[in-house]
Amino acid sequence: MSRPQYHGVDHHVGKTPLIRLKKLSELTGCEILAKAEFMNPGGSVKDRAAYGIIKDAESRGLLKPGATIVEGTAGNTGIGLTVIGHARGYKTVIVIPETQSPEKFQQLRTLGAEVIPVPAKPYSDPGNYNHIARGLAEERGWFWANQFDNTANRQAHYLSTGPEIWEQTGGTVDAFVAAVGTGGTLAGTTQFLKEQKPGIAAVCADPYGAAMWSWFTNGNLDDDDGDSFAEGIGQGRVTRNIEGLAIDKAYRIDDQTALAVVYQLLHEEGIFVGLSSGINVAGAVRYALEHGPGLTIATILCDSGAKYQSKLFNAEWLLENGLEPGMEVEEVFGERR
Fold it and tell me: Where in this chain does the record put each Tryptophan synthase beta chain-like PALP domain (predicted)?
């Protein structure tokens, strides 16, 4: 018998289960399937981008043992870079907007990252968290992960998420749905899937206040249409990971619809996720109701709800922000059928 091979956590990114969402599948007459990305070592889909960016940098001689990685992030990419960085011998400095959940700050610091909170400012402002991270890299000789415009992010999903969904569905997948933060998940996954089966639909689920619905639907970046409490998604510019991405359908998903999905998954299916996951699943349901029944639709459960307990699972916070946790999914989708 050959000796088994053992590896550290960095070798266990990906290969997450594809979970059937029972109630929403029954509601739509489609197979609504979701990748359980909260089962990655760092707890989110961003582990894939983090691993891909680190491996790419190593292959190009940009990262050497003991180096420091700096990144501007809403939290999850920073967590992924820190976990995988520890496993491969790197330090991390994370620049994060002050508006992100307290749980993310606590987790990053617990993991050992140096955390630099900054005011939330648009990309056009020099004080934007990405520009600050880039400046620190230039000043101190650190490696800037640059998740938004580093196409190693997109490539990571082309090499992992897409092939996994194709294999797990036996090639029967008809559509893939994802929100856009950097654009890597949607671009890389759909690129692979469309190469296998050109008729697969690439679908964007966009929160209010973001510009990708407008970009894919109208060809402009007019995003003056509201706001969202979703963290880690919502983009106002065409990143390099998005460039060249052809989308078949895009949806605007409001927070109340996404919240109803989050609570349904928690109470009826035992799946504990955050608002970005709710937006993704809501997009899959919208597509199913418009194009089904009989379709197989895959999407992403981005991360665990544990990072959002002080907000999404706090009755007082929900009340203050006009959100109703008791709304049924039949109600929020019934109006859109």
Answer: 10-303
Average pLDDT, the chain: 95
Which pTM value belongs to this model? 0.96
Which domains can be identified in the chain, with CATH numbers? 9-39+161-329 (3.40.50.1100), 45-147 (3.40.50.1100)
Q: Following CA atoms 112, 118, 71, 38 in sequence, which dihedral angle do they give, to the nearest 10 degrees?
A: 70
Catalytic annotation present for 46:
yes
Nearest partner of 183 among 209, 207, 150, judged by Cα: 150
Across residues 125-147, what is the average pLDDT?
A: 96
Q: Which residues of the chain form beta strands (DSSP E)?
A: 18-20, 31-36, 68-72, 91-97, 114-118, 143-144, 175-178, 201-207, 249-253, 296-301
Strand 31-36 relative to strand 18-20: parallel, antiparallel, unpaired?
Answer: antiparallel
Q: Residue 314 corresponds to which tokens in the numbers above?
A: 């706090």
Contact 320, 314 (CB under 8 A): no
| CB-based contacts of 236, cutoff 8 Å, min separation 6 | 122, 123, 210, 211, 221, 223
* Catalytic-labelled residue, pool 15, 23, 35, 46: 46
Contact in structure between 153 and 277 (CB atoms under 8 Å): no
